[in-house]
Amino acid sequence: xxxxxxxxxxxRHVALILDGNGRWARKRGLPRTMGHKxxxxxxxxxxxxxxxxxxxxxxxxxFSTENWKRSEEEVGAxxxxxxxxxxxxxxxxxxxxxxxxxxxxxxxxxQDIIRGLDRLESETKDNTGLTxxxxxxxxxxxxxxxxxxxxxxxxxAGKQKPGxxxxxxxxxxxxxxxxxxxxxxxxxSGELRLSNYLLWQMAYTEIxxxxxxxxxxxQEELEKAILAxxxxxxxxGGV
Length: 239
Ligand code: IPE
Ligand code: IPE
Ligand code: MG
Description:
Blueprint: E1 13-17, H1 21-27, H2 32-53, E2 57-64, H3 72-95, E3 99-103, H4 111-124, E4 131-138, H5 140-156, H6 167-173, E5 184-187, E6 206-209, H7 219-230
Parallel strand pairs: 1-2, 1-5, 2-4, 3-4, 5-6
């Protein structure tokens, strides 16, 4: 760990857009799927590093609602990787006292993947260390749409009143209910956009963009982001 990191405030919740797997592979003349495979290794290491550093929540964007637009071959390869890493992740989570939570609409996945995701959550639910949130088939607009639909249904059923709707009530209908808002967003591979990620939750999140391609992301890169975060003056609209 960097010497001066000891004095630093570790953000409570780090959100990650792990981007650049394809570019990492292209640079090496490899198929894109090899980049995704290497990217999974970087996710595993980041979970272990975050747990060790005392980060309480780590949310990673694994697959967006828009990523279904990719070729059938790439989507198929990503699904196979999910199958493989769900099992590995169960071991890593158990070894590191990590609780796993999924956000996103899992109903679009194959039955065995849904079962695997359910199992990951249920078997790690009593772990008390890092909470590792995985966003799969996640899109903020989809999440908000699903939340509004359920809230409207509850209004029709007389369980909620439109006049009682507050920001806190809406938060309770989002997939992230009970999870604090991210303090720091890290996006790898240099793109300057949110790509439909946690739009409600990141209203006041500090944004850190690095040119590092996701498979190259490591402890040193995570520390660099946290050092940069410590130099920010968080204001939340006040003076
Ligand atoms: C991120 O890497 C992984 C997923 C979106 C699943 P990309 O696949 O987007 O890699 P680039 O952006 O094409 O380099
Ligand atoms: C965002 O990356 C989604 C994930 C990392 C899962 P993309 O590569 O899909 O985003 P865009 O298309 O560059 O905005
Ligand atoms: Mg990308």
